[in-house]
Amino acid sequence: MRAIVVDDERLARNELKRLLEEFPRITVIGEAANADEAIPMIEEMNPDLLFLDIQMPGKNGFELLEALEDTVPEVIFTTAYDEYALKAFEFNALDYIMKPIDSPRLAEAIQKIEEVIEKNKKEDAQESEGELSVHDQVFVKDGEKCWFVRLGKVRLFESMGNYVRLHFDDQKPMILKSLNSLEERLDSKIYFRANRKHIINLNYIDKIEPWFSGGLLVNLKAGETGPGGEKIEISRRQAIKFKDLMSL
After folding, report:
1. What is the pLDDT of residues 132-155, one digit of tens each?
2. Out of the domains of life, which is the source (predicted)?
């Protein structure tokens, strides 16, 4: 896996890189001392994994993740502070390692990463059946409720950590899938990755407005039995692709 180390302390970066030499599956492809350095590096190099400090000058680690416009890599937080642990897992972090980092604790985190990789490989193998069309019907179970819904009725897919929330009619069930794995199977002429958290059904776009920093804001129409009305931001980078796709 290709990793980037983000930490404002040079000695901490060097020590982590030294420890990572014990794990041949991890290749450090870059390092940054703050969010402003890290964000363009992440977007250009598209790493699989971030080792990310939280307290840094300028944007902190959480703000760095929020600033990423497209897919966010897997994240292991490395910090000297324990009070951010709960918030870290709200960002779907794989692990939260307290400094000073030792080799056994790092090995535990790497094992988690490898388990995630194997799980994703199995999911990819199971989902390599080909593209889903708007006419395909899918079975959705959320708790005690079940639906057999035509895919074309789903106006929005919303990432919720390891789950995806489906928005159709007035329902919002969640399924245990990643947004990336769904994107690979959806018809790209109908479903568009608006940002790192949302895929929208282009047939449900009601209105498009200019938004901050060159992005766009789309309003979605209601389904057959309501309610719709979601407002979804298309990131600056994705707005360029969207305009080409829609000939705007």
Report:
1. 788 888 888 888 788 888 899 999
2. Bacteria
Scanning the chain, the segments in alpha helix (DSSP H) are 10-20, 35-45, 61-67, 85-90, 103-126, 179-185, 236-246
Are the beta carbons of 59 and 35 closer than 8 angstroms?
yes
In this structure, what DSSP letter does residue 107 have?
A: H
Q: Are 220 and 229 in contact (CB under 8 A)?
A: yes
**Which tokens go with 73?**
């890599």
**Of 105, 126, 147, the domain-final residue:** 126
Tokens of 180: 């990336």
* 91 vs 76: CA distance, rounded Å: 10
Least confident of 10-14, 67-71, 206-210, 239-243: 67-71
Asked whether 156 and 173 are in contact (CB, 8 A), the reply is: no
Reading the block at residue 154, the tokens are 């789903």
> Of 126, 158, 175, at which residue does a domain stop?
126
Report if residue 92 sits inside a domain: yes
